[in-house]
Design brief:
- The structure holds two protein chains of two kinds.
- In chain A, strand 11 (240-244) and strand 12 (247-253) form a beta hairpin.
- Chain A has a six-stranded mixed sheet, sandwiched between helices.
- Helix content of chain A is 33%, strand content 28%.
- Chain A is built from twelve helices and 13 strands.
- Chain B has one domain (22-65, 81-317).
- Chain B has 15 helices and no strands.
- Chain B has helices spanning 23-37, 40-65, 87-91, 93-111, 114-117, 121-124, 131-179, 188-196, 199-216, 218-230, 235-254, 258-268, 270-274, 288-292, 295-317.
- Chain B is elongated.
- The chains are: A alpha/beta, B mainly alpha.
Chain lengths: 289, 321
Amino acid sequence: MSCIKARGLRKNFGSTVALDGVDLTVEKGRIVGLIGPNGAGKSTALNAILGLTPFQGELKVMGRDPWSERDALMLDTCFIADVAVLPRWMKVQQILDYVAGVHPAFDRSKAEGFLARTSINKRSKVRQLSKGMVTQLHLAVAMAIDASLLVLDEPTLGLDLLFRKQFYDTLLNDYFDHRRTILVTTHQVEEIEHVLTDVIFIDRGRIILSCSMDDLAARFAEVTVNSQQAAEARALNPIGERTVLGRSIMLFDGVARERLAGLGEVRTPTLADLFVAMMSPNTAKGAAT
Amino acid sequence: MSMSTTGLTDLKSEDAAPGAYSFARLMAWCVRRELWENRSIVIAPFAITGLMIFAILIPVVKLAVGPLQFELGADARGAFPTDGLWIPYAIIAAPVLAIGLLVAIAYCLNALHGEGRDRSILFWKSLPVSDFTTVMSKAGVPLVLVPLVSFAAAVVAQVVIFAIVLLVFPLVAAKAHLVWNGMPVDYRAMGRVWAGVPAGYLTLAMLYGLFATALWHAPIYAWLLLVGGWARRLVFVWAVAPVAGLMIFEQIAFGTQRLEALFEDRLLGIGPRAFSEMGGNELPDLTPLRLLSDPGLWIGLVVAALFLGAAVLLRRYRQPM
């Protein structure tokens, strides 16, 4: 059983199409990055997966229909939607009490262990914590829930570099164990690049790329083309081309590395470069992150 | 907080998700959560009864330490008035009911509104608690919790007032003994004070009255909860304006005021349904059968259920703001 399986997933808001027939499979034990420009349908897809919004098409998360079984789904799915959604009036202690009260899979001592490593005072109210601390708190609560699927929607938005780095380190070292699945969206592609096992690009409600990071390295290549060979390189239909310091850098999809080696220096593209190259021209203009 | 350690934490679940907690347990935690967020539910009734006790204390202290001001009619000697001694106790009821109504209204306006406004609904929805359970716990606050807290505050107030009377009475009597030239002090009058206070009746009537009122007001609370969940801003205006608008429309279009009468009856009409008529110093009787056979009560409860059902659906479909 796949962790998430979507067939022809559609969602309209009036005449706006947010999801335009998405087919998607996320296997267990993967760390998947869902990446797309603003308005591409990332949040709508996550909302559908988490049972927060109705949808058309077929969608199963942990074998359940998220819309009709949201509360059951939340027994083994956990999500951090956006930063700072913890209720500001609540004390840290109360959050632990409440989650322990309603969630059978919550391990309170584990959460307290995570919190002990931070400077968060359990008697503080959420409103007294800095944005970074609120994120640490939410992550501590989420990681103490023995869930099979963890969904993170822009979990580090607006945090400084130290917190962002620490966030993903903690997630990898203390939480991920190949039995769980993590689905994460973010604009800070560079930071999660090395964390992911799989990547999904979404644009205008459609999946335009879905592959593992291993396949990605095999499939895509970026070449700093020697200037006299530019025409020759263009004949191989690069999916993207940009100029840096007077030299053309081209991105190829499915062209053998041996074939490219003669054209210039070949390497695996970064997710950010691949993302920019693959976005449709209209969205790419304003969305280079 | 003994419930906070679940005992289920060492669950060895590989793939199977653990079963959800019972509805009763989830409700208990949700209601507790409401109390954490809205401490005024507890503070307000006790504050108002505290104020009442303080108000009663002032004339009592004057009586105890000031000069005696009894009119010494021939028949008054040695006989303290014991009629209507229940009045100070019963007088607590009105402010407790009023503050309970205010607290409940303010609570309902914000209960489903606040979680959307501060987006904390995204946190609540990440937990295995259904929209139904959440809305029911929020409806439980004005319908069960506020009456219970008000009742507790009223009972405490009554005990305190009674203690004050018991303390002051001998003081006054002793002073009368001195002032009125060795007038015999009739300490049996103390017994009459006891007898003059129908404590059991007052306690029962308070509990009954609070819950009868809450049930009668159920459609108002449910409406406020629904509008709070629906309106993005100006909840109070959205809650009141349609009702007021319809009243004005009816007045202009048909020249009648049926809706206004209906609303007034819903707001204030519980008294004559739940209690017999009150005359002079006579205590009214409880009339639960009359209340339960009143179709208005049941129609109100059905309307409340419909509003709450709509609030559940709204919370389910609504995207956070």
